[in-house]
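Lest this sound abstract, we let one protein speak, letters for residues, whole numbers for local backbone shapes, and leave readers to judge:
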Amino acid sequence: LTDFSSDIALHEATVANDPAVPRAHLALAEAYAYSSRFDLARDHLHRALALWPGYRQAEAALAPLEAERAR
């Protein structure tokens, strides 16, 4: 059985089950960002936006990560 004791494990399993769901990538990105895994968060936000161009929640989550990277 998969251990869903962490948000990351849950969202990783969700993305693995259906990688074409932009909201799943957003949820995983938010969990990664909360855990200071910013590169992984950015990767999943870019994937969410590739699946759903203009996805406002993903754009809003990505903006501060990109701004921090630019510093």
In short: Residues 56-70 form the longest helix (15 residues). The two ends are 42 Å apart (CA to CA).
